[in-house]
Amino acid sequence: MTGLGVRSSSYGSLDKTGLNGVVLPIQATTIRNKPSKMHKEREGVVHWIFKFAGRKKVGMLLLFLISAVVFLRVLFVGKGEDGQEVQVPPSLHFNGSSVVNHSNLFNEEQNINIRNISFNVVYSPPPPPSPTHFLGYTLPQGHPCHSFTLPPPPADRKRTGPRPCPVCYLPVEEAIALMPNAPSFSPVLKNLTYIYEEPLNRDTEFGGSDFGGYPTLKLRNDSFDIKETMSVHCGFVKGPQPGLNTGFDMDEADLLEMKQCRGVVVASAVFDAFDDVKAPQNISKYSEETVCFYMFVDEETESILKRERGLNESKKVGIWRVVVVHNLPYSDGRRNGKVPKLLVHRMFPNARYSLWIDGKLELVVDPYQILERFLWRKNATFAISRHYRRFDVFVEAEANKAAGKYDNASIDFQVDFYKNEGLTPYSVAKLPITSDVPEGCVILREHVPISNLFTCLWFNEVDRFTSRDQISFSTVRDKIAAKTNWTVSMFLDCERRNFVIQRYHRAEQERFARQKPPVPSFSPPPPSLPTPVLISSDLPRKVSSGRAVRTSPPRRRGRDRRSGARGHRKANLPVRLPDSA
């Protein structure tokens, strides 16, 4: 008798015995000692089937029944699995594209098939830790500022001087949102400290001051050897606290408040009452609340502000917080202005960004928009505009001498010193450097060690040589760039003129006011029309014959004769005199 067996592990062969060695018969009758009632009923059904059908037909019937049961089972299971929710790991979300947070499951995008259910799994790595340095950003391709280009300058022959040009700023809200959360990278230099001397050593070859110190030429050269940790002269050498018995002194209340500025600082200065304090325009409410606007003045300017602008105990003139500086280190007001211009990081030790504008300028764009456009979008830590006309230090020096900006001998000495160190005229060989001469009335910077070092060394050159910082700018920049991959971002002067407006100095305004004629309080009556007067040459002349003859006008010659031949001549009407009785 033949029976069905189970599939063994030897290449799919069939055994005639079951799992326990029992033969599985198809038609064999099993003899039991005590058959149950249910078993008797089943036997009765089988005998009934055998009675009405042959043995061959019974086998076919059993096969049909088994096939039907298997078909129904598969159909039921398929429907149940289709309606049943697929179990996935908790981190695998199923919204068309699913995200897996387990890096050990998949390393790249894969296609997975589970019982005819297909879905895409996209590997998303865990969020990276917050960066330690700002790495910059790029505006999207479709952003208007991404493809913005400067239009050609207008063809105006009457106005050939410098003028502003369009600049694509982001809205204030977008600029604020793009403010970096981390500082920018400072190449090579990581830790920068500043020298103060007690007592002050005045032994040096030349130059220097009690405020900036007297570093020797060896110390000067060492300061350009960029290292990871450095200590340099940077003004305020008389004490550890800048502005406290160091020269350029300020009240302790002002110093304490300046330490509270931890974001953006806008700084300016007016000394010797040289300029008027100008109110910034178009400043957002957020900037008014978060940006520190500081105006540094001397006692002379303070008295004018009290008299003309109502300066009182609040120390506020509009949006400016006015700080009165005592014990100015220099007799020259322009040189005193270099202290807050170049050493603002020492006066605001906790600030992240600063915007310096000269006292003659009026700010007309929000500071966040300016910083976003010229620092953050460029991934720069120092930005300054280049001179609109001059690019060469030698040309700039000659222009300073011609304008009497400083005594000629001092300018020549400084230029010759730089020339012996390797200064050469500007040429295209210096590209991508676009200019050696800045327009230094506006400075944008981030307070990181490398940019702080640059302004310290720039100030030391101003303290040692002339106060014309345009002459020393390129020397300091190029010496630092030779040791690092850091440089200064220089933008167009017309772009600078877009966000600041240059006004006249106070003395020029007073001179213009004196030259202007007084305006009458009432308009004078219009003059009366004159009575027509006859001229003797217009009258007829009597001749001996008694006839009245008109005197002919002088004959025209040359060009007048030709023009008179045209049809624009006035007709000479004859004058008829009354007859005599």
Automatic annotation (TrEMBL):
Keyword Lipid metabolism: no
Residue span(s) of domain TOD1/MUCI70 glycosyltransferase-like: 192-505
TM region(s), chain numbering: 58-76
Record's protein name: TOD1/MUCI70 glycosyltransferase-like domain-containing protein
UniProt source species: Eruca vesicaria subsp. sativa (Garden rocket)
Biased composition (Basic residues): 553-571
InterPro entries in UniProt: TOD1_MUCI70, TOD1_MUCI70_glycTrfase_dom
Domain of life: Eukaryota
Keyword Transmembrane helix set for record: yes
Keywords for the protein's UniProt record, in alphabetical order: Membrane, Transmembrane, Transmembrane helix
